UniProtKB/TrEMBL annotation:
InterPro entries: DUF2961. Residues 423-435, 443-452 have a biased composition (Basic and acidic residues). Residues 423-463 are annotated as: Disordered. It holds the Pfam family DUF2961. Coiled coil: none annotated. This is DUF2961 domain-containing protein.
Amino acid sequence: MSLLDHLTRPVKARTVRVSSWDQRGRNQDYWTTPAHSSRVLADIEGPGRITHIWMTQFCRRALGPGLIDPLEADTVAPVMEIHNALGVNWEEPDPDYYRKVLIRITWDNEEEPAVLVPLGDFFGVGHCMPNSYQSALFTVSAKPEESLVFGGSAALNCWAPMPFNKRARIEIVNDNDLPLQQYFYVDYELYAEDLPEDTLYFHARWNRSNPCNGWAPDLQTNSPEVNIADLTGEDNYVVLDVEGRGHYVGCNLSVHHRQGSWWGEGNDMIWIDDDFRPDGTTVFPPSLHGTGTEDYFNHAWGMQKNAYLYHGAIVHEGDVPGYAVNYRQHVVDPIRFEKRIKVSIEHGHGNHLSDDWASTAYWYQTLPSPKASILPLEDRLPTRPAALPQPAPSPRHGAVAEEIAEMRRRHDERWRRWQEHLAERTRQRGERSLKESQGNIDHSADLRRRYDAQTGRTRSADV
């Protein structure tokens, strides 16, 4: 059977989309989510299935007043991609915003979200550094000048199928002090019949240890002294530990290696169902025991610079020394569980390294969704090299000193007015995005009613 066989058979469904299109019919096709607020991208009545999510966004911090008034620029698309040295604008991307913004997805009116992950990590943008890659479930496409740059812009795609029976709700949560400007598509199908009772729902969770609890980060990887016997895995880094019934379909892993040698060698260990004793302790070895971190990600002799359908490197330490992002997707070889699963990896053999590890786990399971939590903002931010301080201004004397003082006064006044206008533009765009969010909700509801009328389906009373 071919993976494309579904294209040869008719399916009773209605294809629909919600997006950030400018509902005034103009060309400002992006939404603004102000600082410390959220936006509902989609709120859809089921039964249905999300088939594709596309997003691109930018989050810029102004360093000084530009020559174009923010309110005058409010009528056009964001085309200010001009080099700061030209003096027309002066701004930079927030290098950490991919971790400051969360994606939250909730199925069927559940109390707990099924997805609660930093926006970048969900799509494979580890360390807030986008880089182009292609896989079965996710892709990222970034221009060369935006690649491997903290806070660079990129196109993000997800093709993981996401069924829902009663309701799907997708939200963006902006924990940043800056507004987020975002374009998006959410493509989905509506069905006339309820989903089967044993339907598995898409889930994703994020975890981080910074640092991992290594017992010898000062000893070199692969040296004889670190070759201890680990026959418990109790100090492993945990990618996922969840109860329920379903299957694990993979993860991405972002590592910032501090030692300057090699961050791999840690074995993957996955416990399933009766690998757990009644008192919660685990048997050893677990159902799945691997031979090394690079081996779990289907590489060998270290990591290679490639990105395949089910495994690959998104960021290679050869691209940015000390940084790596890798993924493994169990699409054709999902790891099944009936009661519980725990996915873990040693951080260095025997857990001797104390690197910064962050991961996003993906899996499907029956509802209810397990309890969701996320680290506070300050514990989510990526590890970045410290920037050099700006030199202090050198003093001048005589007549030129008076002119310099006047120029600084003019700059401060222009900067004050520019910030006021920027804040007003953000407020206006935020209010319009709220209205368009409601417009998307109303549009989805109208399409659901029309499709029900077409198919003769009776709407559920508990939606």
